[in-house]
């Protein structure tokens, strides 16, 4: 027993020596913890040590960046003529975009004019007629959104272009550019294919939530126009559109639709949106907004006899909900009814209406444009043939 017990430790010791010698021939990273192992200095440690030895030398001097040598200047060249590499403008990273280069602007004071020969990067997808207006849908290369283009006669197109240049608001259609082609002006605007008139032709009816979003959007657009001294004079279902893809409500049609196509009207009889507006004309725009909201409540456009301020006031005096055929779903919408009463109130000034707006259009429960997305999808399925000319 004693002899065998002494042979076992000797065997273990010999095996440990064999393993240690094997690993010693191939050092592993774990041996870094061995305090007896010599440390190999790194490049950074050598640089830090040199900096400590010479504190007057900055660490950046120890490893200067490699730069290409500057071209030698010709002593025979004139001092007033710097070399070509100094004349080139510096590259500004903030001006680089992933899209195509913008076309050269037309030599006019306006930044929206584009030369006819510079229409690059646009692909025509198709055409459609909507309320008597010919539209062209185009795609922009390397851009996710579409654009719409309509053709005007020269005077009318310049009038609407000048009007849209003055106004910049989220609820007013955005003008991208204007193209002058002979006696015609082509206006390119953001893609807002669907009108509020088409929304009323789907089987899903608008509720108070959607009407509140429409009222708030158009009221903000009209308030902005009134403060800018502009009267729209054509607030209707066909002049209120839904932009895609963000589902914003935008106000359009700043000239009559009949002037977008040839007609027998007088050449200068085209102005709808006007400047230097009076309080009565602005109040008329707000009353037209009230008629649009009544049509949304009715679920269809009102007949010409019912779409008058006088008829609405007479029905309201008879304690009726503004003369709509099915008032039962709206009898409990007190804020909506009060807001309509304020829009139709001719005794209250326009300034009072927009400076102290009703709670219905400034409430905290307002929804976003997603509430109209189901209606936009249904228009595609149910109203793709609804291109009726203006009556």
From TrEMBL:
<protein>
    <recommendedName>
        <fullName>Protein kinase domain-containing protein</fullName>
    </recommendedName>
</protein>
<dbReference type="InterPro" id="IPR051931">
    <property type="entry name" value="PAK3-like"/>
</dbReference>
<dbReference type="GO" id="GO:0004672">
    <property type="term" value="F:protein kinase activity"/>
</dbReference>
<dbReference type="Pfam" id="PF00069">
    <property type="entry name" value="Pkinase"/>
</dbReference>
<keyword id="KW-0547">Nucleotide-binding</keyword>
<feature type="region of interest" description="Disordered">
    <location>
        <begin position="59"/>
        <end position="107"/>
    </location>
</feature>
<comment type="similarity">
    <text>Belongs to the protein kinase superfamily. STE Ser/Thr protein kinase family. STE20 subfamily.</text>
</comment>
<feature type="compositionally biased region" description="Polar residues">
    <location>
        <begin position="91"/>
        <end position="101"/>
    </location>
</feature>
<dbReference type="InterPro" id="IPR000719">
    <property type="entry name" value="Prot_kinase_dom"/>
</dbReference>
<feature type="domain" description="Protein kinase">
    <location>
        <begin position="109"/>
        <end position="361"/>
    </location>
</feature>
<dbReference type="GO" id="GO:0005524">
    <property type="term" value="F:ATP binding"/>
</dbReference>
<feature type="compositionally biased region" description="Low complexity">
    <location>
        <begin position="73"/>
        <end position="90"/>
    </location>
</feature>
<dbReference type="InterPro" id="IPR011009">
    <property type="entry name" value="Kinase-like_dom_sf"/>
</dbReference>
<keyword id="KW-0067">ATP-binding</keyword>
